[in-house]
Design brief:
Layout lengths: L2 E3 L5 E3 L7 E3 L10 H28 L6 H30 L3 E3 H34 L4 H4 L2 H27 L15 H5 L7 H11 L3 H19 L3 H32 L6 H26 L1 H19 L1
Antiparallel strand pairs: 1-2, 3-4
Helix pairs in contact: 1-2, 1-10, 1-11, 2-3, 2-10, 3-5, 3-8, 3-9, 5-7, 8-9, 9-10, 10-11
């Protein structure tokens, strides 16, 4: 964007068109750290894609995993890989080239995909919490409530609601013309893009806060896990209680980490005194830790999935030898 001097000494910014370029926050890498950072980032991205593809493939080929819980879980690696792919390739390219410039359309696309991933994960984890709630609190009605038709409706609702919410969020954003070019984060997202606008963006801010912080997923999760906890306390079967806590404990931790990190990152954008380093670290952690840890956590903690993964790997190893 070009700056044009005004007669009174102030600076007037020309409106940035869709063909102009933005500058992401610097990575702060010295020349000696460029290639180690590239190798580490590429290795992390490879592990994320490999582990998530392993979970996807195992669920797809193992008939005993064709149950509501695992079919819902099937959607999580898809969302995780989408978020990682929206972030890592652009990051790796900028590490190698030491160029933090990104076009406005590419920035909008990256921001949309990253928010689509984050919201998608929250909705998928919420649906998985609902599935566990029905399985533990209403076991006799589980097959009726989580029937194949209802399961398909839930999955369609997840992706349709996710797309609708994110489409609205970015339609509210692209109606403005930006008057700045410096992105304050290491990647494009809605809060950093809103900061490029010099017009009244209160509607965007209110929509973003309500969408993430006060939205339905957290309320649904609190209700479902309160009911699960009540059922576990009331039941006299120690094995059932232990199995329920083991099944839901990890899921609850994964959800809360994602929800809390997202909430603190967005709140930090609205507090001028907040440390940019902490805000950027929290923002990047949302894109690294859930995609990296989700397949590992669910693969190790879910007995059926773990056994199926090991069996699938053994079959692949045997077929390779033959």
């Amino acid at each position: 964007m070009r700056q044009q001097p005004k007669e009174d000494g102030m600076i007037m910014y020309s409106n940035a068109s869709a063909g102009e370029f933005l500058t992401l926050a610097p990575l702060g890498l010295s020349a000696t750290h460029v290639y180690p950072a590239f190798v580490f980032g590429a290795l992390t991205y490879f592990i994320i894609v490999f582990c998530n593809m392993l979970v996807l493939t195992t669920i797809a080929v193992s008939k005993k995993l064709h149950k509501p819980m695992f079919i819902l879980l099937f959607n999580l690696p898809i969302s995780d890989m989408l978020g990682a792919t929206a972030f890592f390739p652009q990051l790796l390219l900028s590490i190698v080239t030491q160029n933090r410039v990104i076009s406005y359309p590419a920035c909008i696309t990256q921001g949309f995909l990253i928010h689509f991933y984050g919201t998608g994960n929250l909705l998928i984890l919420t649906a998985m919490a609902y599935d566990r709630y029905i399985a533990i609190c209403c076991p006799l009605r589980y097959n009726t409530i989580m029937s194949q038709n209802n399961l398909i409706r839930i999955i369609i609702a997840i992706w349709f609601l996710n797309f609708s919410l994110m489409f609205t969020l970015f339609v509210l954003l692209v109606r403005f013309k930006v008057c700045r070019t410096n992105i304050v984060d290491l990647y494009c997202n809605n809060p950093s893009l809103v900061k490029l606008v010099c017009e009244d963006t209160r509607l965007n801010n209110y929509y973003g806060i309500v969408l993430v912080v006060l939205g339905g997923p957290l309320l649904i999760l609190i209700y479902t896990y309160a009911q699960i906890l009540h059922t576990c306390v009331m039941t006299n079967h120690t094995d059932a209680r232990r199995k329920a806590i083991q099944t839901c404990g990890t899921h609850l931790v994964v959800f809360l980490i994602l929800q809390i990190n997202t909430a603190f990152t967005l709140i930090a954008h609205r507090i001028e005194s907040a440390s940019p380093f902490i805000r950027r670290a929290l923002g990047v952690s949302i894109l690294i830790f859930p995609p990296f840890l989700d397949p590992i956590i669910y693969g190790l903690k879910t007995a059926e999935l773990k056994q199926s993964i090991l069996l699938y790997l053994k079959r692949k190893a045997c077929s390779t030898k033959l």
